[in-house]
Design goal:
alpha+beta, 3 domains, 5-stranded mixed beta sheet, 10 helices, 7 strands, elongated
């Protein structure tokens, strides 16, 4: 009911405006009455005013030629995800920062994990969300692959052209409707009409704000490509032997991996010793004292046994 009441009030104001314009510009039409084409007794619009009434914005805004979408340029949102391994984490992170600057981009988010004081042996990893101008997409992607060894890479593109142009068209319609409502508001004859028109304007302004925000989000996503980069610190970058490799190649890779694992384990043991040297020294001293006392006690026991055997 409220929607119908608003629509009636809108038609009323439009009829008053059009009837007054017709009285000034057309000598062939019947003279406009003082009520502006609205029959105050019956509450209905006159035939001449109804015929001259323009089409409502709701009817024109949603009727778009399908060719608009077919001929419009694509609106692509491009995204990519890279996982990169490196043995020099600090240098790679610094190179990534410079790469973003050179391409006119920015970091939307950057996080680094591991390598903390409480876990000094932990390898570091970084997660970066980078926004780069769409024109520099390919250049940034190829350059990012040089930061280290790329273990995985994914890309995606989303064409939002139809939704974009639909929102743009609806925004234009709402702005046209806003202009018409403002014009009608200036000529509203009663306070009730003014209130109804202001309520209609409030609804239109809300729609304009929502559509404008939607288009701004699309523009931001279309104008700047999004890269998600995972940077991982490793001790050594190696390529795994594929399934198509020969038996000798697989065995050689296995022996090499075993040797590297043994060497790495020995190195880790030495590192652990260096971090716990004082504890190891105390443990060794206690062990020496314990062995010495144990030997002395053992000698005493054996001496007693020997004396007892001789006495018998």
């Amino acid at each position: 009911m409220m929607k119908r009441t608003k629509r009636v009030a809108l038609w009323l104001a439009a009829l008053i405006l059009l009837a007054s314009c017709g009285a000034k510009n057309s000598a062939s039409n019947a003279p406009a009455s003082s009520n502006g084409g609205w029959d105050m007794e019956t509450g209905a619009a006159s035939d001449s005013a109804a015929e001259s009434l323009p089409m409502a914005p709701e009817e024109t805004g949603d009727r778009q030629d399908s060719q608009v979408y077919q001929n419009a340029g694509a609106k692509l949102i491009r995204r990519a995800e890279l996982t990169i391994q490196t043995t020099e984490f600090d240098q790679a992170a610094e190179a990534l920062n410079q790469l973003v600057v050179d391409n006119g981009g920015y970091f939307e988010n950057a996080s680094v994990y591991g390598g903390s004081y409480r876990n000094a042996n932990a390898r570091r990893s970084g997660e970066y969300i980078v926004r780069v101008p769409a024109d520099n997409y390919l250049n940034f992607q190829s350059s990012a692959g040089e930061l280290g060894y790329v273990t995985s890479s994914t890309e995606s593109s989303e064409d939002v052209g139809e939704r974009y142009y639909d929102a743009e068209s609806r925004l234009k319609t709402q702005r046209t409707k806003q202009e018409r409502l403002l014009t009608l508001l200036e000529k509203a004859p009663t306070m009730e009409d003014i209130i109804d028109l202001e309520n209609a304007l409030s609804d239109v302004e809300y729609q304009i704000e929502q559509l404008s925000s939607q288009l701004n989000r699309y523009d931001a996503l279309i104008g700047y490509a999004t890269f998600t980069i995972y940077l991982e610190e490793v001790a050594k970058v190696t390529e795994e032997v594929g399934e198509t490799a020969s038996l000798g190649q697989k065995m050689a890779a296995g022996f090499a991996a075993s040797g590297e694992g043994l060497a790495r384990g020995f190195q880790n043991f030495l590192v652990w010793i260096s971090y716990n040297i004082f504890g190891v020294m105390i443990f060794a001293a206690v062990a020496v004292v314990g062995v010495t006392l144990g030997r002395r006690q053992l000698k005493k026991v054996r001496g007693r046994i020997d004396r007892q055997d001789k006495g018998e």
